[in-house]
Design a protein that fits this description.
The chain contains 12 helices and 10 strands. A hairpin with a 7-residue loop joins strand 2 and strand 3.
Length: 333
């Protein structure tokens, strides 16, 4: 009799677990996605340090044209949130507080979101995506392939190190005072994106430049790459760099950020390269890289180096602004 009672109790426990887990999950999901009194769907989102799971949920599915209220909380440290494609920016999500924002995506697509506050050494891993579904009103126009693809650049092949490197830091302001006419390919910003700065020999081809010293030529190269960049553009890129890149590459661009110490970095591509993130002050690497190559790196990510892609977080203008900012670690404005 006692054995039967034990068997019945065990059966009861099994049934309770089998039925209870789905019920608990349903209740959990229902609690996360509610309806406010005005009928707007409410989604509870928790921002935790990446080591504790990051954003939860890190994937949302919304209907195009639907207004959704996100209630974002943090149980540990201060976080931030940006959804560039939806124009959403939340600077601070304090522990124990709830931030509410309304989003209304009009077009189907994938919208990446990310934390904007330094929350741990793995801050750069704190990302998610919003999938917006629904019939599009009209097919989106076909976008041209990124420049690095148009040029057929292999992002996994290191360009050869230039045979000549500057002895001192090139200065754009000094190049501007030389009164030298730049070749069309260097004078035009669009054409220049396909050329590596090391191709300064084009300046030497003009007999009028025969008297220029190597330092003069490098100063002209610095001027060519920075002369068209507005201060406001560089300021915007600098803020993005501080938010997204400094943790690994360091605030000075030397690749010594705390989050990048244990990353394989460029050694995955070339065993002769030092372990860790790229040093943007390394003339041998940066002078061999065209802007188009750097565009590809930002768009695709490091593919095994630990660097994430930024194509989903940056606009086209922000990508080129970031590339110009990376040049300032080697070229003085």
């Amino acid at each position: 009799m006692l054995v039967k009672r034990r068997e019945l109790f065990a059966l009861f426990v099994v049934v309770a677990v089998v039925l209870g887990i789905p019920a608990a999950l349903f209740a959990y999901q229902a609690a996360r996605q509610q309806r406010s009194p005005d009928g707007v769907r409410v989604v509870e989102m928790v921002a935790r340090a990446p080591e504790q799971g990051g954003f939860s949920p890190d994937r949302l599915v919304l209907q195009a044209g639907e207004t959704v209220r996100l209630r974002i909380s943090s149980p540990d440290v201060v976080h931030g949130l940006t959804i560039p494609g939806l124009g959403v920016n939340v600077d601070e999500i304090y522990p124990g507080k709830v931030v509410e924002i309304a989003v209304r995506p009009d077009k189907p697509g994938r919208y990446a979101f990310a934390c904007t506050r330094w929350c741990s050494v793995n801050h750069w891993r704190m990302r998610g995506v919003i999938e917006v579904v629904g019939a599009a009103a009209a097919p989106a126009p076909t976008e041209p392939a990124p420049l690095f693809q148009q040029l057929g650049i292999d992002l996994d092949v290191m360009p050869p190190t230039p045979t000549a490197l500057p002895v001192t830091r090139p200065m754009a302001s000094a190049g501007a005072t030389l009164g030298v006419a730049l070749p069309p390919a260097l004078a035009d910003p669009a054409s220049r994106r396909a050329i590596a700065p090391a191709a300064f020999q084009a300046l030497r081809n003009d007999p009028a430049n025969a008297a220029l010293s190597d330092a003069d030529v490098w100063n002209l190269v610095a001027w060519a790459w920075l002369k068209d960049v507005e201060p406001a553009t560089l300021a915007r890129a600098e803020s993005l760099y501080s938010r997204d890149c400094a943790a690994c590459h360091g605030p000075d661009g030397k690749g010594k950020g705390p989050a990048g110490v244990n990353l394989p970095g460029m050694v995955k591509m070339d065993p002769t390269m030092p372990r860790g993130p790229l040093d943007f002050t390394d003339a041998g690497v940066m002078l061999a890289a065209s802007d188009a190559l750097l565009q590809g790196k930002l768009l695709r990510g490091g593919m095994g180096t630990g660097m994430p892609e930024f194509g989903s977080l940056y606009s086209d203008e922000e990508l080129w602004a970031m590339i110009a900012h990376l040049r300032t670690f080697l070229f003085a404005k």
